[in-house]
Amino acid sequence: MSRTSFGLFLAPYHCPAGQHPTAAYAADLDVLELVDRLGFAEAWIGEHHSCGSELIPDPFLFIAHALHRTRHLRLGTGVVSLPYHNPLWTADRALFLDHLSRGRFLLGVGPGALPTDASMIGIAPEEQREAFGEDAAVLVRLLRGETVSHRTRRYTLVDARSQLGPYGDGPEVAAAAVASPTGARVAGRHGLGLLSLGATSRVGFDALALHWDVMEEQGARYGRPARRDRWRLVGPMHLAETREQAVEDVRFGLDDWADYTQHVLAAPHFRAAGATFDERLAWVTGTGLGVVGTPDDAIAQIERLQQQSGGFGTYLLMHHEWARPAATMRSYELFARYVAPHFQESGARLVEAARLARSRHAELDRRHADAIAAATARHAAGRHGADQDASTSSSRAAAT
């Protein structure tokens, strides 16, 4: 069994709009602290500037703060909307956080998820993906320490280079992909990792094999072989001890989240179906988008994705507020306890150790009991002899 890592993808969603941002940020940090303790490998934090529910405008700043609340978790931008920024400053911030984190920083880049963000700075949806491909090429050169001159209508670079070098080998960089092949092309061309967002939606699931084929083809063309261990798939789950309990849990917030994707978020590739709770739940579970169920259901979902994709390195749970905070935390605990070990060598070794012990239990249990009985008998015999010697010595002393 190939080893699969697990992490978290925090857009983050705080639905419905109107929640107190300070409390929302505190809740996000609590989640990061929990998954850090549970042994998750990484977490990615998004960049959004509109729509009222995805509340982190600067993932760099949030990550710098979260570094002090976590010990082992690798933290990444999920993702920086590259066309919104001068790539020189993006490179500088990435290398800066690479040093501050002592190598725990990951750089995720993409074209921008919310058209409402792009429209406020005069970028049309039709140009975002082409701009992303152009800017990614510039960014990669800057991260590698090259001097770059480049002009677009959005920025001008003149003999630009970052004065910072990397910490160690530098941050791992991953490109985001959803339905189009743009992210996979960028990742393959520049030897980057790939973040398949919405990988479990019907469109995303159908595109998984395409993503890898495009990435592999581009990597071969540019001499940068694609690596499956740097491919990350993102999808939502909520787990409980029973399916019935999981369904009751998500009555709290699934409708608000679904309404956001249907009527606020302009993203046709990731839109809930249905107008009632039951219809929306059926969309999540019936289409394969996500899991509302037990750890066994989660295992089946990941195995299904492994088969469809041909293999990937990391599964990222899309964080949401479908359930109340306590139930959400319990879901992550169940995942860490029962799901993650199923896909990792440490869990397999523990199961094998238990199997071997079970196979020899009767024999070793009997021998162990016999050994204890023999040791007890020897002790008793020794005490009896010692008591006799003591009695004889006392009689001799009295006689003298």
Fraction of residues in β-strands: 15-25%
**Strand order across the biggest sheet?**
1-2-3-4-7-8-9-11
Tell me the CATH architecture of the largest domain.
Answer: Alpha-Beta Barrel
Structural class: alpha/beta
Shape: elongated
Could you tell me the number of beta strands? 11
**What is the residue-mean pLDDT, rounded to a whole number?**
93
What is the CATH superfamily label of the largest domain? Luciferase-like domain
Explain this structure to me?
- The chain is built from 14 helices and 11 strands.
- By secondary structure, it is an alpha/beta fold.
- It has 2 domains: 5-353, Luciferase-like domain (TIM Barrel), CATH 3.20.20; 360-399.
- The strands form 2 sheets. It has an 8-stranded parallel beta barrel, surrounded by 9 helices. Strands 5-6 form a two-stranded antiparallel ribbon.
Q: Summarize this, please?
A:
With 400 residues, the protein is an alpha/beta fold. It has helices at residues 21-38, 59-66, 87-100, 115-120, 125-143, 182-190, 202-221, 243-250, 254-263, 277-286, 295-309, 325-339, 345-359, 361-399, and strands at 5-10, 42-45, 74-81, 105-110, 148-151, 156-160, 172-177, 193-196, 231-239, 291-293, 314-318.
SSE arrangement:
Elements (H helix, E strand, L loop, with lengths): L4 E6 L10 H18 L3 E4 L13 H8 L7 E8 L5 H14 L4 E6 L4 H6 L4 H19 L4 E4 L4 E5 L11 E6 L4 H9 L2 E4 L5 H20 L9 E9 L3 H8 L3 H10 L13 H10 L4 E3 L1 H15 L4 E5 L6 H15 L5 H15 L1 H39 L1
Parallel strand pairs: 1-2, 1-11, 2-3, 3-4, 4-7, 7-8, 8-9, 9-10, 9-11
Antiparallel strand pairs: 5-6
